[in-house]
Design a protein that fits this description.
The protein has 201 residues and is an alpha/beta fold. The protein is built from 7 helices and 5 strands. It has a single domain, classed as Phosphoglycerate mutase-like (Rossmann fold). Strand 2, helix 4 and strand 3 form a beta-alpha-beta unit.
């Protein structure tokens, strides 16, 4: 379900940042379960540099930006770098609904297995083959975050720090396209920051 369909306009500006290059990326592993991702597989040295560079290049963010982040270590560390680099007035808020998509039986498998999941996604956005969280399940939880932020009076610029598939699906929701099309949109590279505008893309 796409909760953004309830809105004609959004009251806040939304930016997203995919976490920087992580130790999971370095090892070519899928890490999507909280017992692995919340405390382990943080940013690599490359990832830290990526995040700092991305923030320096992004002029739309400032100290008034509210950072809301997945509680996985690689995202949390990216958010903490953002907090320091921007000199934010408020510490990042950790939001479990922004976690990595649950890749089920593919946990700790080589990241080449993503292709199997994405092929299935294009056929059926409700598929839970091999215990993978469906596209539509991910879309529901990440768009709930935006819906809840719209109902919160605090802040006008939001930076959501999350993961590849979660953000791929979120930008598909912003574009008002079906979840099965999420791989058709330009994907975010590690540490990339992008503004999402309702109805565009």
């Amino acid at each position: 379900m796409n909760y953004l369909l309830d809105f004609d306009l959004l009251s806040k500006r939304y930016f997203v940042m995919r976490h920087g290059h992580s130790l999971a990326n370095e090892q070519g592993l899928i890490v999507s379960h909280p017992e692995n991702g919340c405390e382990d597989f943080g940013l690599s040295r490359t990832g830290r540099v990526q995040v700092e560079k991305s923030l320096r290049r992004q002029s739309g963010l400032n100290r008034a930006t509210r950072i809301v982040s997945s509680d996985f270590r690689r995202a949390r560390e990216s958010a903490e770098i953002g907090f320091s680099a921007l000199g934010c007035e408020v510490a990042p808020v950790l939001e479990p609904r922004l976690r990595e998509r649950d890749f089920g039986e593919y946990e700790l498998c080589p990241d080449t297995c993503y292709d199997d999941v994405w092929r299935e996604d294009a056929l059926n956005a409700d598929s839970r083959r091999r215990g993978v969280e469906s596209v539509n399940q991910v879309m529901a939880r990440v768009t709930q975050v935006v819906r809840d932020l719209e109902n919160d009076l605090r802040g006008t610029t939001i930076l959501l720090v999350s993961h590849g598939d979660a953000l791929q699906i979120l930008q598909t929701a912003f574009a008002m396209r079906p979840g099965s099309a999420h791989r058709q949109l330009d994907h975010l590279h590690t540490a990339e920051i992008r503004q999402l505008i309702l109805g565009s893309g």
